[in-house]
Design brief:
Strand content of chain A: 5-15%
Number of strands of chain A: 7
Distance between the termini of chain B: 25 Å
CATH topology of the largest domain in chain A: Sodium/glucose cotransporter
Order of helices and strands of chain A: HHHHHHHHHEEEEHEEHHHHEHHHHHHHH
Oligomer: heterodimer
Order of helices and strands of chain B: HH
Distance between the termini of chain A: 58 Å
CATH class of the largest domain in chain A: Mainly Alpha
Shape of chain B: elongated
Helix content of chain A: 55-70%
Number of helices of chain A: 22
Number of domains of chain A: 2
Structural class of chain B: mainly alpha
Chain lengths: 584, 93
């Protein structure tokens, strides 16, 4: 779809960006030491840190990706919400307190606390960079998605803008400005998502059985790059056509035309008893190289919408196909184990003063994140039934849902979503830059840097990582942001969690075991992803059947593999460098 | 604004191993409780998805109600953990 820019959206967007940049410049004058730059001096109050956890974690994947997936496929998107939240249980009950006690700036500090090993520093830094880059891609893709309807700019311009703003935020004040941008964004995301949900419930459900609402649509991209919608040039002028916004209920309970305002329980009940029109797409390329995608309406019982198995990702759950079930188990395991392995989340524990503050801030984070994930179900269903789906892009569902309530809600939600990207990307860049400076340069290469030099190099590293993120965000434009984040979780859970957990709970762990475990987890999960059917199909453009791995999500194999490698290598290496296990 | 004073970092926390062990064991127990619930949820979705269609109460199916329960359950266990944890010195946090 072509989205016309809105002047009020531009104004609100400019205010948000100006505020975040102003905050960064204000704080930038105070970030003079490495501790201040990489860990906000350990002075962040636990409540602020807890909301910042939400701001850091609720990324474009959560807001754009999950809402979009629920809007297109119903309950399947909500499975991600459950998995993402469950991961926080691991973070709170297993990781938070010991990590805070053992580390200083990066999660490698905790891993290396007893060994002082250059190998651990290097391997943990590489893992941090790989996971951060994997996580950055969907954030930047989300940025481009948002800028299109907001300012009318092409995807690459949106990615470039986010890159520029984020690099400025991180390069000015590091973790302090990142924390407060995340706090600001986490608070606003919750408030506006709650407001949007209230509007959805107040609107209730309306049936639209008209033939126009149920007509298929086609989008043709000709060999010379022209775009045709239903046979006409794409546009909003005379003689042109554009894809129409879709998604509605075709039948409501009792044959009613509309329900009127509903409570949350009544809303879910009404969706379950309705018939909802979902949209499927099929792309055909003709001999001349013209690629035509046909979007077809698919009336679906509401009961099916609110159970797993509609999306292509989880369709196998309704069959007896064991590999599809294993793929699902693998994803849910990666989501469960991944949160407590994400470097940009782990470094947030170093911004508070002690273990109790780390614990309390995680509880606040769970409360904020849990509330948001409950709201995702209503926002996704609201988009699904409110005629606000862009059939060509599931990532646009939440902003377009807001637009159906007026330009101001659209402007606010889009600006909040934009700060969502800013907050998460800032955290990722701080984590990556900390790994480069603290783990690689001073830990591995043993360079003797002053505090000021560390800050300067950290800022340069932030610029470099930001530029890489911009390039990748442009290249991966068409991937679903939520799906990409699933991969980042798999790599993080495979590479980092086994080493962290075993260091804390198994006294026979050796430094060789930790290094081997991170290496095995990272290489095996990356290799699995690159060889998976999904990557063959969506990235390489070749048949998924040629993939040599049985299912696409690696976690079920690579997480246990990483644990096993750690155990075997630790048992085979001398006891002399054993850790005195932190917790027994 | 709190947290913006880049004075020297707070001093390292005093270690209290018995308290650390108590908190860690408590965390592992609560983790096991949640893992059981999450594991059951994932297993039902994977191997008995039709069960998710059942409507146990309030007209909401098991898929949605169990999902909400896992979210609320995580928060309840987190609050319980925060309440039961001890601070160095042996007091409740």
């Amino acid at each position: 779809m072509i989205h016309d820019p809105s002047s009020i959206a531009v104004i609100v967007f400019a205010i948000f960006v100006a505020f975040t940049l102003g905050l960064s410049f204000y704080l930038g004058r105070r970030a003079r030491t490495a501790s201040g730059y990489f860990a906000a001096g350990g002075h962040v109050p636990w409540f602020v840190n807890g909301v910042a956890f939400a701001g850091d974690y609720l990324s474009a994947a959560s807001f754009l990706g999950i809402c979009g997936m629920i809007a297109f496929y119903g309950y399947d998107g909500f499975l991600y919400s459950i998995g993402y939240l469950a991961g926080w249980v691991v973070a709170l009950f297993v990781i938070a307190e010991p990590l805070k006690r053992l580390g200083k700036y990066t999660f490698a500090d905790a891993l290396d606390n007893k060994f002082q090993s250059r190998g651990i520093k290097l391997m943990a830094a590489i893992s941090t960079l790989v996971v951060s880059v994997f996580y950055l891609i969907p954030q930047m893709v989300g940025a481009g998605v948002l800028i299109k309807p907001l300012l009318g700019f092409p995807h690459w311009a949106g990615v470039l803008m986010v890159g520029a703003v984020v690099i400025t935020i991180v390069a000015t004040a590091g973790m302090a400005s990142t924390t407060y941008v995340q706090f600001f964004k986490g608070s606003l995301l919750l408030i506006f998502s709650a407001g949007l949900t209230v509007m959805i419930l107040n609107r209730g459900l309306k049936a639209d059985p008209s033939p126009g609402a149920n007509a298929p649509q086609t989008l043709t991209v000709t060999a010379d790059g022209k775009r045709l919608v239903n046979g006409k040039p794409q546009g909003h002028g005379e003689g042109q056509a554009d894809l129409r916004q879709s998604g509605h209920a075709s039948k409501l309970p009792g044959g009613a035309a509309e329900t009127g305002p509903l409570g949350p329980i009544e809303y879910l009940k009404a969706v379950r008893e309705s018939e909802i029109v979902l949209w499927s797409s099929e792309t055909v390329t003709d001999a001349a190289g013209n690629k035509t995608t046909t979007y077809s309406p698919k009336p679906t019982p509401g009961a099916d919408v609110l159970r797993p198995g509609i999306s292509p990702t989880f369709a196998g759950l309704k069959s007896e196909d064991l590999t599809a079930k294993l793929n699902f188990l693998s994803l849910m395991l990666a989501l469960f184990c991944g949160t407590a392995s994400l470097p940009h989340i782990l470094i947030r524990y170093y911004t508070v003063k002690d273990a109790a503050a780390a614990r309390k801030s995680t509880v606040v984070g769970i409360a904020a994140i849990g509330c948001f994930y409950v709201l995702t179900l209503f926002m996704g269903l609201g988009a699904m039934t409110g005629g606000t789906i862009d059939v060509s892009s599931d990532n646009m569902s939440a902003p377009l849902l807001a637009k159906s309530f007026g330009e101001l809600p659209f402007a606010l939600i889009s600006a909040v979503a934009f700060t969502t990207v800013l907050g998460t990307v800032s955290g990722l860049i701080v984590a990556a830059s900390g790994a480069i400076v603290h783990d690689v340069m001073t830990g591995f290469l043993k360079l003797d840097l002053t505090d000021m030099a560390k800050v300067r190099v950290g800022k340069l590293a932030a610029v470099g990582v930001g530029l890489v993120a911009v390039c990748l965000g442009i290249v991966f434009e068409r991937m679903n942001v939520n799906y990409l984040v699933g991969w980042a979780f798999s790599v993080a859970a495979s590479a980092n969690l086994p080493a962290l957990v075993m260091l804390l709970f198994w006294k026979r762990t050796t430094k060789q075991g930790i290094i081997a475990s991170i290496f095995a987890g990272m290489v095996s999960s990356l290799g699995w992803i690159l060889l998976s059917g999904d990557t063959f199909d969506k990235v390489y453009g070749i048949s998924a059947k040629l993939s040599p791995v049985p299912f696409s999500q690696p976690g079920l194999v690579t997480i246990p593999l990483s644990f096993a490698v750690l155990v075997v290598v630790s048992l085979l290496t001398p006891k002399t460098n054993n850790v005195e296990v932190a917790l027994r | 604004m709190a947290g913006f004073d880049h004075s020297p970092p707070p001093p390292a926390e005093a270690r209290d191993l018995p308290v650390e062990r108590y908190n860690a064991r408590l965390g592992l127990v609560l983790f096991a409780v949640y893992l059981a619930g999450y594991g059951a949820y994932v297993a039902i979705n994977a191997f008995r998805p039709a069960l998710m269609d059942k409507v146990p109460f309030l007209g909401i199916n098991l898929a949605v109600s169990s999902g909400f329960l896992l979210i609320v359950g995580a928060l309840v266990l987190a609050l319980l953990y925060a309440w039961l944890c001890r601070k160095p010195g042996g007091n409740r946090a």
